[in-house]
Amino acid sequence: MNTKIEYIETKINNDVVFSTSSQHYLLQSMTNTDTNDIEATVAQIMELVDAGADLVRIAVSGLKEVEALLQIKRTLQEKGKDIPLVADVHFLPEVAEKTAHFVEKIRINPGNFTDKRDYSACFNEDEYNQDFEAMSLRAKPLIEICKQNNTIIRVGVNQGSLCGRIIARYGNTVEALVASALEWIEIAEKYDFQRIVFSIKSSHVKTMMEANCLLYNKMTEMGRVYPFHLGVTEAANEMEGRVKSAVGIGALLLKGIGNTFRVSLTENPVNEIAFSKLLVAAVQDIQHNCYEQFSDGILKICYPEKNKEQWWAGVGALTGKWWLTHVIKDIVIENQYFNIEEIEQLQNCILQICNIKKTHTEIVACPSCGRTQYDIQSVLSAVKQRFANYPHLKIAVMGCVVNGPGEMADADFGIIGSANDKVAVYKGKERISNFVSVQEALQILQENIR
Predict the structure, then answer these.
(1) Residue 189, by phi and psi: left (phi above 0), alpha (psi -120 to 50) or beta?
(2) pTM (global) more than 0.85
(3) Mean pLDDT for each consecutive 10-residue tract of the chain (450 residues)?
(4) What percentage of the chain's residues is helix, strand, coil (to nearest 5)?
(5) How would you classify residue 285: left for phi > 0, otherwise alpha for psi between -120 and 50, otherwise beta?
(6) Cα gap 443→450, rounded to integer Å
(7) How many other β-carbons are positioned within 10 Å of the β-carbon of residue 277?
């Protein structure tokens, strides 16, 4: 008889184990310091622990960063900070294998275990299956190490970095995201490995919600529901970043999907934990302290919360819940504690996120990490200040070339960072500048938008 595996991660005795509780969400963030700067990274992790983080993710780009992360973990233990660490690994399975010996969780991208061949030409079922088997064999050494060390694998499926084989069959769709995740269930179970967590992310909030719901339903049909990590990529900052995350993450939490999550903000990572707490509070408070009505395409929400950011979180979560299953034409928000201007600002923000009404430029930005080598926060602020009034334009501000080109592929324009505070300007998928100073890049962007 199939058993439904519904559990979450809980920090106990300096390890991450599974628990049957469903009433607690683990809050995550990620460092944005250079991983090789051990002192700065340790200091930021300690700040996040003090703020209430349950797990902290760290970028591990190569073998040099593996050694740095080991020293970071030892330093934290010496300081008495008991916090599970998640190694964020891109491109190199061997880096994941080395790191899996001493961290609690490895975040891998399925696309890094696939062939880098051209899938534009037609290929048959046998070729498709052969490529899948090759990916399975590449994953086996990592899985065996994780089994030996009780290390969790987080399978991070991202719409901006799906493998060519999956896209060739499904397109860059919700179905493609779910198919990629299901392949890794098959691989893990083939090697008798259950310590897996799944995250499906997209900068498109509706895509992220639909993909997670579809994966959850598929798992339920299988009789094995593994943990979900939730997040909206490139949410940017300030009100837009918080509300966009609340719409996507909050809606799924209200549906009972999600065990751990991260609110990704292009800000100090401590702010991510602060808003995550407010989002949890809003989700828990909504059923007792909220009025909602949907009629003729108009969603009316009354959530009388005094804390502004918790109000954003609650209204965003409720909007996302309705948006999943209904066509929303307009949104009416009521709250006696805020004035008309503040209410209208929130309404316009949500209408923009839900693609109902465009009132300003859509600006997306990655939260940055140890791979980012320029001041992305100040560049994002400059872009928002100079290019805010183009309602049908989408601009991306990305930290590095690891995820940048793929994850901003549908933006009209983008800025992607490189080493030594240099950035490049993109128009669609095409790079239209060399790596230049930020000021030069902003001028190039201005000229092209004109």
Answers:
(1) alpha
(2) yes
(3) 41 43 77 96 97 95 95 96 91 91 94 73 80 93 96 92 87 94 96 95 92 97 95 90 96 95 95 97 91 95 97 98 96 97 97 94 87 85 91 88 71 86 88 90 90
(4) 45, 20, 35
(5) alpha
(6) 11
(7) 18
